[in-house]
UniProtKB/TrEMBL annotation:
One of its GO terms (cellular component) is mitochondrion. Interacts with NUDT9. The gene is GLOD4. Keywords: Mitochondrion, Phosphoprotein, Repeat. It comes from Castor canadensis (American beaver). It comes from the Eukaryota. The keyword Repeat applies. It is found in: Mitochondrion. This is Glyoxalase domain-containing protein 4. InterPro entries: GLOD4 (IPR043193), GLOD4_C (IPR043194), GLOD4_dom (IPR059155), Glyas_Bleomycin-R_OHBP_Dase (IPR029068), VOC_core (IPR037523).
């Protein structure tokens, strides 16, 4: 499975101004591209909404070799109820710690050299006050699971992830597709995993020819397929094929054809300006948040 890559995690955001400030000014990420859409995504990329929305990709570098964040903004939705499903993203960056201190962004030192902070909307981030030897500072995404062994079987045996660490006592496991990629950490919790309204989605790429086989495997194993293999169009850009899965706890997983996605995900030098222009045209996210919410599709 060495040909598979960890790509991004999808966050629903209610305030683009504060969110952009956090990812750009605190974490130090760059806007890689920004796109506006008039209607909801047929693979529910923006959640169960059929109104106008935008997608902003941010990261420390291009998605070819960095794990990035996808910020989806539904016009008119000012906030999303959080569940217990997403437990945080860990980033090794002394610069991010320095930025947060300089800009007086709240930090809580949870253990020596590791600081907990929150992005707008309440999403947790853990900042390690050092740098990683690899080029991408994003170290891991932590998701809650209700049955660690069942989840390990799914992510390792079915999706082909390598298990890097497994601590049964702490109910924790670290998995990934390659040593130099962002890892997935599974953390066992008591009770059920609640996705609430802010449920995210983690994305990976694989050779396009593997997508039908992956879908067939999930059918044979009687696993949940949220969106069967479908082609997604982005105006003026590459068309990509995706299949959306759900693990035993309902975490959404997107697998996308790598070849077309590399073309689609190329950095747009105008990305930051496009985001700023969209926010200016929006007048203010707070104003739009008082408007009627778009009708949910389904």
């Amino acid at each position: 499975m060495a040909s598979r890559r960890a790509l991004h995690f999808v966050f629903k955001v209610g305030n683009r101004f504060q969110t952009a400030r956090f990812f750009r000014d605190i974490l130090g990420m760059k806007v890689l591209r920004h796109e506006e859409f008039e209607e909801g995504c047929k693979a529910a990329c923006n959640g169960p909404y059929d109104g106008k929305w935008s997608k902003t990709m941010v990261g420390f570098g291009p998605e070819d070799d960095h794990f990035v964040a996808e910020l989806t903004y539904n016009y008119g939705i000012g906030d999303y109820k959080l569940g217990n499903d997403f437990m945080g993203i860990t980033i090794a960056s002394s610069q991010a710690v320095s930025n947060a201190r300089k800009l007086e962004w709240p930090l809580n030192e949870v253990t020596e050299g590791i600081f907990e902070t929150e992005a707008p909307g309440g999403y947790k981030f853990y900042l390690e006050n050092h740098s990683l030897p690899q080029s991408d500072p994003v170290f891991k995404v932590t998701l809650a699971v209700s049955d660690l062994q069942k989840s390990l079987n799914y992510w390792s045996n079915l999706l082909g992830m390598k298990i890097y660490e497994h601590d049964e006592k702490k109910q924790r496991a670290l998995l990934g597709y390659a040593d130099n990629q962002c890892k997935l950490e599974l953390q066992g919790i008591k009770g059920t995993v609640d996705h609430a309204a802010a449920f995210g989605r983690i994305a990976f790429s694989c050779p396009q020819k593997e997508l039908p086989d992956l879908e067939d495997l999930m059918k044979r194993e009687k696993q949940q397929i949220l969106t069967p293999l479908v082609s997604l169009d982005t105006p003026g850009k590459a068309t990509v094929q995706v299949v959306i899965l759900a693990d035993p706890d309902g975490h959404e997983i997107c697998f996308v054809g790598d070849e077309a996605f590399r073309e689609l995900s190329k950095m747009d030098p105008e990305g930051s300006k496009l985001l700023d222009d969209a926010m200016a045209a929006d007048k203010s996210d707070e104003w739009f948040a008082t408007r009627n919410k778009p009708k949910a599709s389904g």
